[in-house]
Amino acid sequence: MKIMKIFGCPGVTVLLLIACSNPPTGNKVPEYSYRVVKTYPHDPSAFTEGLAYRDGILYEGTGLPGRSTLRKVDPVTGRVLLLKKVPDKYFAEGITLFANRVLQLTEDARFGYIHDIEDLIRTGKFPYHTKGWGITTDGKKLILSDGSANLYFLDPETYEEIRRVEVCNGDRPVTKLNELEYAEGEIYANVWPISRIAIISPATGRVTGWLDMKGLLTAQDRKMIDWSVLKGQNLSLPLEEEACLNGIAYDPESGHLFVTGKLWPKLFEIEIVK
Hints:
The structure is a single chain. The chain is mainly β. It has one domain: Neuraminidase (6 Propeller), CATH 2.120.10.30. Helix content is 3%, strand content 50%. The chain has helices spanning 219-222, 239-242; strands spanning 2-6, 15-19, 31-41, 48-54, 57-62, 69-73, 80-85, 92-98, 101-106, 111-116, 122-127, 134-137, 142-145, 150-154, 161-166, 168-169, 172-173, 177-183, 186-191, 196-200, 207-212, 245-251, 256-261, 266-273. The strands form 5 sheets. An 8-stranded mixed sheet has the order 18-19-20-21-3-24-23-22, with no helix packed on it. Strands 1-2-15-14-13-12 form a 6-stranded mixed sheet, with no helix packed on it. A hairpin with a 4-residue loop joins strand 9 and strand 10 (111-116). The protein is globular and about 45 Å long. The two termini are 28 Å apart.
């Protein structure tokens, strides 16, 4: 494994970049599927960019200029309990919970918003030096994706970059890393815009498994999508492909994941199976 160290002047943070190298021979990356435990309703007009779960409440960030929001949601009924709009000019992205804060990224503005976890009141901003796509936490550091193959580890108080890793499947970088969730010592990452979730070692950036989510949303389900949300938006994909898998939240009590997608009419509680 190739390790690059970048040293600065005294007092400057030392960054560590772990990059792809040839994988150990004979190590095949495991493939996993899923079992749907329960299915819940989900707002089909919510362009989901971030998902988190704590104490029976689902926290959801939605995107698109003019439509970006931060929400508290009852996961069982799909009812929005509290909603705060993001200023119209920003495209909001991933979210995570850290202590009593909800952190929400913006795609291109190079800053994210800090909200109080109880009332979602905006209390400040935090900086980063990349695009903002997905964010999670291991409880000690923030972990951010920017659509590349890199994951960036940030100090949760100063928001300075501590280190970064390049995510690799074998010796190939995995790009377009999007929404993130940390669970049981590993990072789960949506890979935009496909129906597969990469399971990643935070120490090395190596993909330790793939979770294949094909077939989760049926053709009948897709008929419930509110396509009017995308009217007038500057789309980078064909219309049908914009409504892709995105959004992972972990429930430590059950060990299950909540997953959904952009404009999906359903939220799924799943169990990972081989």
